[in-house]
């Protein structure tokens, strides 16, 4: 989760309408709730139908109240990706809708509109009268997934890595990494007042170190297939869990790397969500199409990880009723690879 370590990332915004008839063109608002340090509220209003035979429309908005925040006046490039579950409870039926939305400066709200028609049949004035006399419980269950451009701290400190300088905010780094917390603030490393720091480690790729730092600010840097393994190595070394999670999400959602590479990353760096994703989405056709890549990656796994993967590949082959087990194909390919090296 970018820029949000330690926050409460889930919450509920709730609004009760005692009688639908009370709703008019003027909106009703819920109390504002802070979720992931951002102010959210519900807005509900009713508008007339398209014609006299149509029921009125209930418009429900969940709003990220950016105009109330000082940072919004300084930046128009912020965004917040969240999963929202709309729930409307009434006497007749409950309505539920789940979706993901990217709230941003240009559109800090999302709208769900439905007809105030109590049934699926033809609209009638009597039915609508009974419905408007009933109450509504409206809530939005919000889970914030990523925040970009919100409250980004200034980079007032410097780290020299093998002679190359990087501007950082030591408080942000310390919040995300026990390593940097000790590096910046424990007496045996540095005094708190110091703003210039030095790391001399010839094993560290300076360019990758900079990319790793930029991934803390997701509007500045993102992992890709060319650098994700090196970034994960550095995240392990410097205990940057927030960047490791970004790499894991990239490997699940955006990477074009072969199956066994992703599985190896999951095993090597303790990426449990990625491991579950790999084992639950084995595609035999794709696996065989990239067999040489998968064999090369399989050879890099330790013996225990190879056994676990063999077991799951065998299960997939059994369920698919394949003529030859994927695990057997992999073992034969690995043996041929080993013989070719001799």
Strands, helices and their partners?
Layout: E1 10-17, E2 28-29, E3 33-35, E4 38-47, E5 57-64, H1 70-74, E6 79-90, E7 94-104, E8 109-115, H2 125-132, E9 136-148, E10 157-161, E11 164-168, H3 170-176, H4 178-185, E12 196-199, H5 206-214, H6 228-238, H7 241-253, H8 259-269, H9 272-280, H10 284-289, H11 291-298, H12 303-320, H13 326-341
Helix pairs in contact: 3-4, 5-6, 6-7, 7-9, 8-9, 8-11, 11-13
The CATH topology of the domain at 10-148 is what?
Apoptosis, Tumor Necrosis Factor Receptor Associated Protein 2, Chain A
Categorize the overall geometry.
flat
Question: What's the CATH first level of the domain at 10-148?
Answer: Mainly Beta
Q: Give the quaternary arrangement of the chains.
A: single chain
Spans of at least 5 consecutive residues with low confidence: 1-7, 67-74, 117-127
* Topology order in helix (H) and strand (E) letters: EEEEEHEEEHEEEHHEHHHHHHHHH
Give the N-to-C terminal Cα separation: 46 Å
Mean pLDDT level? 78
Provide a count of the helices. Answer: 13
Number of separate strands: 12
Helix content: 25-40%
Task: Determine the strand fraction and express it as a percent band.
Answer: 25-35%
What's the CATH H-level superfamily name of the domain at 10-148? Apoptosis, Tumor Necrosis Factor Receptor Associated Protein 2, Chain A
Give the class from helix and strand content and strand pairing. Answer: alpha+beta
Q: In the CATH hierarchy, what is the architecture of the domain at 10-148 at level 2?
A: Sandwich
Q: What profile does the largest beta sheet have?
A: 5 strands, antiparallel
Q: From the alpha-carbon coordinates, what is the Rg to the nearest angstrom?
A: 27 Å
């Amino acid at each position: 989760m970018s820029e949000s370590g330690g926050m409460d990332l889930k919450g509920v915004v709730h609004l009760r309408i005692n009688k639908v008839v009370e709703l008019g063109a003027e909106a009703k608002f819920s109390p504002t709730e802070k979720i992931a340090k951002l102010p959210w509220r519900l807005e509900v209003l009713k508008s007339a139908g398209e014609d006299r035979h149509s029921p009125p429309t209930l418009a429900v908005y969940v709003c990220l109240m950016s105009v109330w925040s000082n940072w919004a006046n300084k930046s128009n490039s912020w965004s917040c990706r969240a999963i929202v579950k709309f729930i409307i409870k009434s006497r007749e039926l409950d309505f539920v809708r789940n979706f993901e939305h990217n709230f941003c400066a240009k559109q800090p709200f999302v709208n769900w509109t439905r007809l105030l028609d109590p049934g699926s049949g033809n609209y009638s004035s009597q039915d609508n009268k009974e419905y408007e006399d009933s109450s509504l419980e409206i809530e939005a269950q919000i889970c914030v997934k990523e925040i970009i451009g919100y409250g980004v701290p200034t980079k007032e400190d410097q780290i020299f890595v093998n002679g190359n300088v990087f501007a950082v905010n030591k408080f942000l780094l310390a919040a995300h990494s026990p390593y940097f917390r000790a590096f910046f603030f424990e007496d045996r490393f540095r005094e708190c007042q110091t703003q210039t720091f030095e790391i001399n480690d010839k094993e560290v790729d300076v360019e990758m170190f900079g990319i790793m730092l930029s991934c803390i600010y997701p509007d500045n840097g993102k992992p890709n297939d060319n650098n994700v393994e090196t970034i994960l190595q550095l995240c392990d070394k410097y205990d940057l869990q927030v960047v490791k999670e970004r790499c894991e999400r990239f490997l699940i959602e955006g990477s074009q790397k072969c199956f066994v590479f992703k599985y190896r990353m999951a095993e090597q760096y303790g990426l449990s969500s990625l491991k579950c994703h790999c084992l639950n989405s084995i595609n035999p056709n794709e696996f065989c199409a990239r067999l040489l890549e998968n064999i090369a990656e399989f050879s890099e796994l330790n013996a225990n990880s190879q056994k676990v993967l063999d077991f799951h590949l065998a299960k997939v082959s059994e369920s698919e009723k394949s003529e030859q087990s994927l695990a057997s194909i992999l073992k034969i390919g690995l043996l041929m690879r080993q013989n070719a090296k001799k």
